[in-house]
Amino acid sequence: MSIEQTILLVDDYAPNLVSLEAVLGDPAWTLLKASSGMDALKLLLNHDVSLVLLDVQMPEMDGFEVAAMMRKNKKTQNVPILFLTAISKEDKYIYKGYQAGAVDYLCKPLNPTILRSKVEFFMQLDRQKRELEAKLREARSHLDAYQQQKQRPAEPG
Asked: What is the distance between the alpha carbons of residues 157 and 155, in angstroms, rounded to a whole number?
Protein backbone atom coordinates (compact mmCIF):
# COMPACT_ATOMS: atom_id res chain seq x y z
CA MET A 1 0.00 0.00 0.00
CA SER A 2 1.48 3.33 -1.08
CA ILE A 3 1.04 6.15 1.40
CA GLU A 4 1.48 9.71 0.22
CA GLN A 5 3.23 11.94 2.71
CA THR A 6 3.73 15.68 2.50
CA ILE A 7 6.05 17.96 4.47
CA LEU A 8 5.36 21.69 4.59
CA LEU A 9 8.47 23.88 4.80
CA VAL A 10 7.79 27.43 6.00
CA ASP A 11 10.45 30.15 5.98
CA ASP A 12 10.42 33.75 4.75
CA TYR A 13 14.09 33.50 3.67
CA ALA A 14 14.21 31.66 0.32
CA PRO A 15 17.76 30.24 0.74
CA ASN A 16 16.58 28.45 3.90
CA LEU A 17 13.80 26.77 1.93
CA VAL A 18 16.34 25.66 -0.70
CA SER A 19 18.58 24.23 2.05
CA LEU A 20 15.71 22.38 3.71
CA GLU A 21 14.65 20.98 0.35
CA ALA A 22 18.21 19.74 -0.28
CA VAL A 23 18.40 18.03 3.12
CA LEU A 24 14.91 16.52 2.97
CA GLY A 25 14.63 15.63 -0.70
CA ASP A 26 13.21 12.11 -0.82
CA PRO A 27 11.07 10.50 -3.51
CA ALA A 28 8.78 9.15 -0.77
CA TRP A 29 7.83 12.65 0.36
CA THR A 30 6.23 15.64 -1.32
CA LEU A 31 7.74 18.92 -0.16
CA LEU A 32 5.54 22.02 -0.16
CA LYS A 33 7.13 25.42 0.44
CA ALA A 34 5.62 28.57 1.90
CA SER A 35 7.35 31.91 2.39
CA SER A 36 4.85 33.32 4.90
CA GLY A 37 2.50 32.21 7.63
CA MET A 38 -0.54 33.06 5.51
CA ASP A 39 0.80 31.01 2.58
CA ALA A 40 1.41 28.12 4.99
CA LEU A 41 -2.16 28.22 6.29
CA LYS A 42 -3.55 28.25 2.74
CA LEU A 43 -1.45 25.20 1.82
CA LEU A 44 -2.54 23.40 4.99
CA LEU A 45 -6.19 23.87 4.04
CA ASN A 46 -5.64 22.45 0.56
CA HIS A 47 -3.22 19.59 1.29
CA ASP A 48 -3.00 16.64 3.65
CA VAL A 49 0.26 17.45 5.45
CA SER A 50 2.18 14.95 7.59
CA LEU A 51 4.70 17.36 9.15
CA VAL A 52 5.42 21.11 9.26
CA LEU A 53 8.88 22.66 9.59
CA LEU A 54 8.08 26.18 10.69
CA ASP A 55 10.36 29.19 11.02
CA VAL A 56 9.66 31.16 14.19
CA GLN A 57 10.48 34.69 13.05
CA MET A 58 8.59 35.83 9.98
CA PRO A 59 6.99 39.17 9.11
CA GLU A 60 3.23 39.71 9.47
CA MET A 61 2.51 36.34 11.13
CA ASP A 62 5.21 34.58 13.13
CA GLY A 63 5.53 30.82 13.57
CA PHE A 64 3.84 30.89 16.98
CA GLU A 65 0.75 32.49 15.43
CA VAL A 66 0.72 29.95 12.59
CA ALA A 67 0.94 27.12 15.12
CA ALA A 68 -1.91 28.59 17.18
CA MET A 69 -4.09 28.77 14.06
CA MET A 70 -3.18 25.18 13.17
CA ARG A 71 -4.16 23.95 16.63
CA LYS A 72 -7.59 25.62 16.34
CA ASN A 73 -8.39 23.88 13.04
CA LYS A 74 -9.71 20.31 13.19
CA LYS A 75 -7.85 19.33 10.00
CA THR A 76 -4.45 20.55 11.23
CA GLN A 77 -4.68 20.36 15.02
CA ASN A 78 -2.64 17.14 15.25
CA VAL A 79 -0.05 17.82 12.54
CA PRO A 80 3.41 17.74 14.17
CA ILE A 81 5.33 21.03 14.07
CA LEU A 82 9.12 21.32 14.21
CA PHE A 83 10.01 24.93 14.96
CA LEU A 84 13.19 26.26 13.39
CA THR A 85 14.83 29.49 14.53
CA ALA A 86 18.02 31.48 14.15
CA ILE A 87 17.24 34.13 16.74
CA SER A 88 14.70 32.96 19.34
CA LYS A 89 17.05 30.64 21.26
CA GLU A 90 16.14 31.79 24.77
CA ASP A 91 14.30 29.36 27.03
CA LYS A 92 11.20 31.59 27.12
CA TYR A 93 10.84 31.29 23.32
CA ILE A 94 11.53 27.57 23.35
CA TYR A 95 8.86 27.16 26.03
CA LYS A 96 6.48 29.33 23.98
CA GLY A 97 7.11 27.04 21.01
CA TYR A 98 6.19 23.95 22.97
CA GLN A 99 3.14 25.74 24.38
CA ALA A 100 2.12 26.55 20.81
CA GLY A 101 2.14 22.86 19.97
CA ALA A 102 5.64 22.11 18.75
CA VAL A 103 6.96 18.57 18.93
CA ASP A 104 10.50 19.98 18.73
CA TYR A 105 12.33 23.29 18.60
CA LEU A 106 15.58 23.43 16.62
CA CYS A 107 18.07 26.28 16.51
CA LYS A 108 19.87 27.30 13.33
CA PRO A 109 22.36 26.56 11.98
CA LEU A 110 20.75 23.15 11.68
CA ASN A 111 22.73 19.94 11.66
CA PRO A 112 21.45 18.25 8.48
CA THR A 113 21.93 14.73 9.86
CA ILE A 114 20.00 15.47 13.05
CA LEU A 115 17.25 17.32 11.16
CA ARG A 116 16.86 14.46 8.68
CA SER A 117 16.75 11.90 11.52
CA LYS A 118 14.03 13.82 13.36
CA VAL A 119 11.99 14.24 10.18
CA GLU A 120 12.36 10.54 9.32
CA PHE A 121 11.12 9.65 12.82
CA PHE A 122 7.97 11.78 12.52
CA MET A 123 7.33 10.57 8.99
CA GLN A 124 7.59 6.97 10.18
CA LEU A 125 5.04 7.70 12.94
CA ASP A 126 2.76 9.31 10.36
CA ARG A 127 3.10 6.32 8.01
CA GLN A 128 2.23 3.91 10.85
CA LYS A 129 -0.77 6.05 11.82
CA ARG A 130 -2.03 6.12 8.23
CA GLU A 131 -1.57 2.36 7.86
CA LEU A 132 -3.56 1.75 11.06
CA GLU A 133 -6.29 4.13 9.90
CA ALA A 134 -6.52 2.26 6.58
CA LYS A 135 -6.77 -1.09 8.39
CA LEU A 136 -9.44 0.33 10.68
CA ARG A 137 -11.46 1.58 7.69
CA GLU A 138 -11.15 -1.85 6.06
CA ALA A 139 -12.23 -3.63 9.25
CA ARG A 140 -15.22 -1.29 9.63
CA SER A 141 -16.18 -1.95 6.03
CA HIS A 142 -16.06 -5.72 6.59
CA LEU A 143 -18.07 -5.37 9.80
CA ASP A 144 -20.70 -3.23 8.06
CA ALA A 145 -20.98 -5.76 5.23
CA TYR A 146 -21.31 -8.61 7.75
CA GLN A 147 -24.00 -6.76 9.72
CA GLN A 148 -25.96 -5.96 6.57
CA GLN A 149 -25.79 -9.60 5.53
CA LYS A 150 -27.06 -10.72 8.95
CA GLN A 151 -30.00 -8.31 8.78
CA ARG A 152 -31.30 -9.66 5.50
CA PRO A 153 -34.19 -12.05 5.95
CA ALA A 154 -33.31 -15.65 5.24
CA GLU A 155 -34.41 -16.76 1.81
CA PRO A 156 -36.98 -19.56 1.84
CA GLY A 157 -35.26 -22.74 0.97
From this structure: 6
